[in-house]
Amino acid sequence: MVTVGIPRALLYYQYYPMWKVFLEKLGAEVVVSPPTNKSILNSGVTRGVQDTCLPVKVFFGHIIALVGKCDLMFVPAVTSLGKKSYNCSKLIGLPNMARALIPESPPLLAPEINCEKGRYNLYRNIYAVGRYFTSNPFKLKKAVEEGWASNLDYWNKMSDEKITPLQAIDGKLSTDVNASSFTVALIGHPYIIYDEYVSHRLISRLQKMEVKVVTPEMVSQEELDAATRRLVGVPHWLFEPEIIGAGGYYLETGVDGIIIVAAFGCGPDSMMLSIVEHRARESEIPLLPLSLDEHSSEGGLVTRLEAFLDMVKRRKRVCV
């Protein structure tokens, strides 16, 4: 049986259930890298080049962690999902960077997912992956259909049950908090806020402080898209709904505060953050921006977090 490695980083938190079902239905065995730790981060940092952002360095570390444990490495290049919105250039170029910087990696399964090029191009790239495992077109078609169905179930489960990707995948992180707690929207890319090592266990910390945490995945895609259009019109970036859309939605529906987590030096994130910050000031909702890199101090993050929550508590007492 062919073993396929999936790095637990970047788009893992958005598409892992779909990838897993698709590959297993083709007859592959899926192996996932362990959660991010100091060793994984350090090994990824050593392969990064100038201006490589933290999430990509973490991704490199996860590829290295899978070397010797799989026959193939699954690293798709997700360029666009249509609507003339595009992914970050570093994510589009992941397969090329991985081949150049991690030569010891097993061969890559690197289909280009670009809906702007049309359905035929998309199917051709997906079927090219399937031919690594089977020559049966009916088996491949069924794998594609079941993978897509699992993706829809995954996103519907999160928005319907108000849970995070970690809970939907493996049941981690309880959202049960004291009934008297206040609500904070935690907004950011899934590969930052759900990587407990990179985010310094931010969700767990908030829950221990009796904060009810809501995230972009707890909102339906239709509502996120609508909120994005109300703020910026037609989005240019593929990930605008998870930042701008989520920020706009929670500001409109009402939360006690917003925390936005971004990778240091990310140009698109800085632009989207400024839009949400501007709207938060208009709505008079407290907002805490957090910028993380491999040098970010856990102590510094905790200090800022405690000060922000104290401000939110005082504001809520005054408003009541």
Which keywords apply here?
single chain, 320 residues, alpha/beta, Rossmann fold, 2 domains, 4-stranded parallel sheet
Distance between the termini: 62 Å
Order of helices and strands: EHEHHEEHHEEHHHEHHEHHEHEH
- CATH architectural name of the largest domain: 3-Layer(aba) Sandwich
Largest sheet entry: 4 strands, parallel
Poorly predicted regions are none
Number of helices: 14
Q: Could you estimate the helical fraction of the residues in percent?
A: 40-55%
Overall outline? globular
CATH class membership of the largest domain: Alpha Beta
Could you tell me the strand content as a percent range?
A: 5-15%
- What count of domains describes the coordinates? 2
As for the CATH topology of the largest domain, it is Rossmann fold
Task: Explain this structure.
It is a single chain. This protein has 320 residues and is of the alpha/beta class. The protein folds into two domains: 3-158, 3-Layer(aba) Sandwich (Rossmann fold), CATH 3.40.50.11890; 162-319, 3-Layer(aba) Sandwich (Rossmann fold). The chain is built from 14 helices and ten strands. The chain has helices at residues 12-25, 38-47, 54-66, 89-92, 94-101, 119-130, 137-161, 165-170, 190-193, 202-208, 221-232, 240-253, 267-283, 298-319; strands at 3-6, 29-32, 72-74, 77-80, 108-109, 112-114, 182-188, 211-214, 257-263, 287-292. The strands form three sheets. A four-stranded parallel beta sheet has the order 2-1-3-5, with helices on one face. Strands 8-7-9-10 form a four-stranded parallel beta sheet, sandwiched between helices. α1 (12-25) links the parallel β1 and β2. α2 (38-47) crosses α3. The mean pLDDT is 87.
